Amino acid sequence: MNTRSLLLSIAFFILSTALCAQQLERHIIAAAGSNSTTGSYTLGEVIVGSTSNGDLEIISGFQQPFPVVDSPLNVEDISKTISVYPVPAENRVTINGPTFDPELTDISLFSSQGQKIKISPIRSKNKALLDISHLPAGNYYLTLLNEANSTIAKYKILKLK
């Protein structure tokens, strides 16, 4: 009888740990209304633990994904030549550059929740003004768009008053 209860206890322990699952999810909250999703799965992982020794840390029992988020092409190149000022701003924002690329066609302004607030065409070769006086105070995201309506550069704008 003792052996039977021992076997039942072992079976119960194995089944109860095998039925439980742990999951850690990483969420990416992107600016300007974009989003991305990553997914992964694993089987097993009954025992979870970590060991560290100085700079080295080993974590067992969970997948450790490192998602790669690619930025649009030429964002770094164009961002170095274009300046957006003043930040923080009250009434208007100036976008200035030596010469805008002919591909740059529009300026879009998004709220911090990702809602498109305003889109205005770029009319000058090296300077554009964006009126934000009617907007409430808060964080906004300014994006420069090309002819294909793809984002070329992004800037964070802080609106005061």
Automatic annotation (TrEMBL):
Signal peptide: 1-21
Residue ranges occupied by any Secretion system C-terminal sorting domain in the UniProt entry: 84-156
Keywords attached to this entry: Signal
Coiled-coil stretches: none
The protein's name in its UniProt record: Por secretion system C-terminal sorting domain-containing protein
Protein source organism: Reichenbachiella faecimaris
